[in-house]
Specification:
Structural class: alpha+beta
CATH topology of the largest domain: Arc Repressor Mutant, subunit A
CATH architecture of the largest domain: Orthogonal Bundle
Mean pLDDT: 85
Shape: globular
Order of helices and strands: EHEHEHHEEHH
Strand content: 15-25%
Number of domains: 2
CATH class of the largest domain: Mainly Alpha
Length: about 130
Amino acid sequence: MQGLRHVNIKGVQPYIDAGLQRLPRLSEERVPDTDAMEDFMMVGLRLLDGVRDRDFEQQFPGHTIEGVFGSQLQPLLQEGLMQRVDGGAGTLPGGTPLRPGTGYRLTSQGVLLGNEVFGAFVGVLGEETADV
């Protein structure tokens, strides 16, 4: 579900039993857009293919990756930890073509320092970013 984060019931048998009666959820909470945007970047950049502008704009209408995270992107690009990609050009290791569309992904150096890159997108928007 969009905008919600849930925790499933723990344990295989309790999960199965709950699933037979209802959704096997222990709890559910609303996720603010700012947290969802940070999660989008942190999780998406773990993929070799990275994140795509189109996917971000589809999930968060009226917002762009650059508009929301421009100040985080610039140093990472300059330090060679991330790169701008055009999905119409290039391949992943092993020859797999990049997904269509422009976006960002980690460089080989960025993969080695992935946690530093991911950390640049966590907790940066905060509650004061009410217009996001």
